[in-house]
Amino acid sequence: MATEPTLINSVVRALTLLELVADEGRPVSAKRLARLAGLPLPTTYHLLRTLVHQGYLVRTDEGYVVGDLPGHLARASHGSTHSQRVRAVLRTLHQDLDAATYLAVLVDGEVELVDIVDSPSVPRTDLWVGLHDAAHATALGKAIIGSLPDDERRAYLLRHPMFDLTRHTKTRVRALLAELDEHSGVVVDDQEYAIGTACVAVRLPSRHVTGAVAVSVPSGEVHRVLDQVRSLRRAAHVIGVAYGVDGGDVSPITM
């Protein structure tokens, strides 16, 4: 006689909420999700916060929408030796700098987050706003925007409003362009995306893909990363070479 599988209720509930948000096709409030799922509102808020933190959902002023990660997972089902090589580089960087590591690339004019390596002791930053709307406030996004030709750089910023995410966020195009013109290949976001968090990024030196590698640390540790920026540059170089070997494949990497 077959036995019923043991299910973890919290996982089932979280997946139910994710499916409900996807089915709505527009921002949906926590109260409506609680009603649709038949869950207590406090439980719904707890599950939604977890889904937002892990990148499955994004919270907006109008409600919750599906984040970047589910699409990345679906498109990454083909897998590749390339993705394994890149993840190995990010894992080594994570260990060397004792920091969460990130890779993003430009796909069809949008900055896409394609891989993250972190751990319980050094978790990723709370990705409460996707890179589509927050590239101007992140080291990853700024490194990628800064590597574009001047006309493409300005066109990108005109297409993407520079939202004020924290009191440190640059919201004027002229100020951001001036910063991008000044940096020497290493871009810093010090509490521009999230209070208490700093990120340092280096663009991929590749003709095949426009992208960047970054690490995130508590704001007070940014100088520690800058002192070891050679590790970040080395990771960016190896990943750039990997993309070149694979013919410029910029498919999202398995998370």
Give an overview of the whole structure.
The protein is of the alpha+beta class and 255 residues long. It has 2 domains: 9-67, Arc Repressor Mutant, subunit A (Orthogonal Bundle), CATH 1.10.10; 72-245, GAF domain (Beta-Lactamase, 2-Layer Sandwich). 45% of the residues lie in helices and 16% in strands. It has 11 helices and 7 strands. The chain has a 5-stranded antiparallel β-sheet, sandwiched between helices. A two-stranded antiparallel ribbon has the order 1-2. A hairpin with a 4-residue loop joins strand 1 and strand 2 (64-66). Helix 2 (30-37) packs across helix 3. It starts with 8 loop residues before the first helix and ends in a 10-residue tail after the last helix. Keywords: DNA-binding, Transcription, Transcription regulation.
Question: Brief overview, please?
Answer:
Keywords: DNA-binding, Transcription, Transcription regulation. InterPro entries: GAF-like_dom_sf (IPR029016), HTH_MetabolicPath_Reg (IPR050707), Tscrpt_reg_IclR_C (IPR014757), Tscrpt_reg_IclR_N (IPR005471), WH-like_DNA-bd_sf (IPR036388), WH_DNA-bd_sf (IPR036390). By secondary structure, the chain is α+β, with helices and mostly antiparallel strands.
Largest sheet: 5 strands, antiparallel
Count of helix runs: 11
Any idea what the shape is?
globular
Under the CATH scheme, the architecture of the largest domain is 2-Layer Sandwich
What would CATH call the class of the largest domain? Alpha Beta
Q: Which fold does the CATH topology of the largest domain refer to?
A: Beta-Lactamase
Question: Spans with pLDDT under 50 lasting ≥5 residues?
Answer: none
Number of domains: 2
Fraction of residues in β-strands:
15-25%
Rg calc:
19 Å
SSE-based structural type = alpha+beta
Q: Find the CATH superfamily of the largest domain.
A: GAF domain
Helix percent reads 40-55%
Order of helices and strands: HHHEEHHEEHHHHEEEHH
- Taking the alpha carbons of the first and last residues, their distance comes to 37 Å
Number of E-type strands: 7
- The largest beta-sheet arranges its strands as 4-3-7-6-5
**Mean pLDDT across all amino acids:** 85
Keywords: DNA-binding, Transcription, Transcription regulation
Domain HTH iclR-type: 8-68
Pfam families: HTH_IclR (PF09339), IclR_C (PF01614)
Domain IclR-ED: 68-245
